[in-house]
């Protein structure tokens, strides 16, 4: 790897570490990473992250509307380089879209409605039925060199790592918020029905099971009913 790329990799590793330290929101952090990618992967005009499962194809983060638009096309036709990279676990490189016939409906739409002519797509992860892909787009044919392909792969590795890390942070924050909601609801139940903490939680759990409503949702409704003015002004 050229010396310039080694410097980029070091900067990228520091960026991922800073996202973890700062507890950055997942989408914000991923967008920052792919914006960094478009600046360093030679030939790249914009970038996006595609999430695909058995039911839908969607955009997690994008630096331009072209990335989002082409994900919608892949969702509609169930074909294209991004979903192929995600589903087939390969790197997909379209050197010249006008001369590539692997995904004819995707190709026609992209040529007719966007200036995109070159695409690089990398698989990010497989989790159950969901897969992810990192995609770089260029407006010129043969925009991506061998060095671009190599450095794009390095970015894909770091994006996959950052995504996993940021999602864990999101889940942790969500768990803390749920714990606080349930704690407030328990306090209301304890006061209203003269129960201790264990009995109040057991009552919430039974109500959740009987109504088929998550405990956190039940707790939120109980808190809202106890404080209607606060709910009205949120």
TrEMBL record:
<keyword id="KW-0805">Transcription regulation</keyword>
<dbReference type="InterPro" id="IPR012074">
    <property type="entry name" value="GAF_ANTAR"/>
</dbReference>
<dbReference type="InterPro" id="IPR003018">
    <property type="entry name" value="GAF"/>
</dbReference>
<dbReference type="InterPro" id="IPR011006">
    <property type="entry name" value="CheY-like_superfamily"/>
</dbReference>
<protein>
    <recommendedName>
        <fullName>ANTAR domain-containing protein</fullName>
    </recommendedName>
</protein>
<dbReference type="GO" id="GO:0016301">
    <property type="term" value="F:kinase activity"/>
</dbReference>
<dbReference type="InterPro" id="IPR029016">
    <property type="entry name" value="GAF-like_dom_sf"/>
</dbReference>
<dbReference type="Pfam" id="PF03861">
    <property type="entry name" value="ANTAR"/>
</dbReference>
<keyword id="KW-0804">Transcription</keyword>
<dbReference type="GO" id="GO:0003723">
    <property type="term" value="F:RNA binding"/>
</dbReference>
<keyword id="KW-0418">Kinase</keyword>
<feature type="domain" description="ANTAR">
    <location>
        <begin position="162"/>
        <end position="223"/>
    </location>
</feature>
<keyword id="KW-0808">Transferase</keyword>
<dbReference type="InterPro" id="IPR005561">
    <property type="entry name" value="ANTAR"/>
</dbReference>
<dbReference type="Pfam" id="PF13185">
    <property type="entry name" value="GAF_2"/>
</dbReference>
<dbReference type="InterPro" id="IPR036388">
    <property type="entry name" value="WH-like_DNA-bd_sf"/>
</dbReference>
